[in-house]
Amino acid sequence: MLIELLQNGIEPWVWFASGLVLIGLELAVPGSFLIWSGAAALIVGALVAYVDMDWRWQLVLWAILSLCLLIVGRLVTVRAGAKDGDPYLNKRGSRYLGQVFVLKQSLTHGEGTLEIGDSLWRISGPDMPAGSSVKVVGQKATMLVVEAVSEDTVA
């Protein structure tokens, strides 16, 4: 069967089916590799539908297109991936550096808590009464380091 297929040339439907199978396999084997080979097969299938081409040239064209699409695809995804993401993902406390908050509970013996959004953070700093404005100046493990902020600085 394979010999007959190659003697008669590879029909466009074979390229279309192969392309769809490769693209489908990308779902099972992620890695952004098979999708480019599948896309190359679809392109070769479309070309073979209009241009009579020997099966050897079809395979060469598929290999070259697969490689080119893979390189272009990698370049595009690497550039797009560099812009995505949260730089503070694993350093959540760092995103609050320099921000000013109001204490809801007093800071006594150098430690207390600060409510930021829906989270409650442990803080360390000088003793201050509830209602004082504090600025986050650092982080020690899971504890934020704060300092007092004068009222005219807050406004």
Low-confidence stretches: none
- Helix share bin: 40-55%
Radius of gyration: 30 Å
Shape: rod-shaped
Strands side by side in the biggest sheet: 1-4-5-3-2
Helix count, DSSP H or I runs of 4 or more residues: 5
SS-derived structural category: alpha+beta
SSE sequence, one letter per element: HHHHEEEEEH
Strand content: 15-25%
Described by strand count, sense and barrel closure, the largest sheet is: 5 strands, mixed
Strand count: 5
Average pLDDT across residues?
A: 87
Q: CA-to-CA gap between the ends?
A: 82 Å
Assembly state here? single chain
What does this structure look like?
This protein is an alpha+beta fold. It is built from five helices and five strands; from the N terminus they run ααααβββββα. It has helices spanning 2-8, 12-28, 34-50, 55-83, 151-154; strands at 100-102, 111-116, 119-124, 133-140, 143-148. The chain has a five-stranded mixed sheet, with no helix packed on it. The protein is rod-shaped, with a radius of gyration of 30 Å.
Tell me briefly what this model is.
The protein is an alpha+beta fold and 155 residues long. 48% of the residues lie in helices and 19% in strands.
Structure keywords:
alpha+beta, 5 helices, 155 residues, 5-stranded mixed beta sheet, 5 strands
List the SSEs and their pairings:
Layout: H1 2-8, H2 12-28, H3 34-50, H4 55-83, E1 100-102, E2 111-116, E3 119-124, E4 133-140, E5 143-148, H5 151-154
Parallel strand pairs: 3-5
Antiparallel strand pairs: 1-4, 2-3, 4-5
